[in-house]
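Re-run with default settings, no changes from the original entry. Doing this only to confirm the output is reproducible before filing.
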Amino acid sequence: QNARRSWKWTDDLLSKKADLEFSASPERDFARSAFTCGYGSNGEFDDSVTHMRTVEFIKDQGPPFFRITDELRSKNKKVHSYEQMWHLETCELALSDDAFTADFGEGVTLEAKVRSENGKFVDMIGSKEPYYQGWMPISPPGPHEHRPIHTPVLKGTFKGSATIKAVFRPKRRNP
């Protein structure tokens, strides 16, 4: 995302209503918003893609889970790349092309399953190339002190549009 390319601060932004839908009920919490400010570095900036994300917390269909839907829509017919990142705190990670399980210890896990046309997961833990990814600042902060964290990244391409659906199931084993 590269909002800095076209975004400028003005005082009226403090009172501007956010472009966000939200609802909460005993059965389901729901939030949806879009990002339209462009992607890429300043040298390869592209504002032809809109990213709409919907997050649902489903509470009434067995154990609670999250459903996340990302809709990518392009105004042109070019092939676009996408990277969907999930930063995880310290855990053991099992990864496949379309799923991961994070084990945080003491019986706490997070299972994720993703459906996309051609995306595949890679773990960018402690990566420096092709860019920095998979790092967490050390607390208390110090100059340039970071520790590596697992960062499953779903990488893929699309032309015209793409929909990525993910289900996240947090679990805690009872002692």
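DSSP finds no helices and 13 strands in the chain. The chain has a mean pLDDT of 89.
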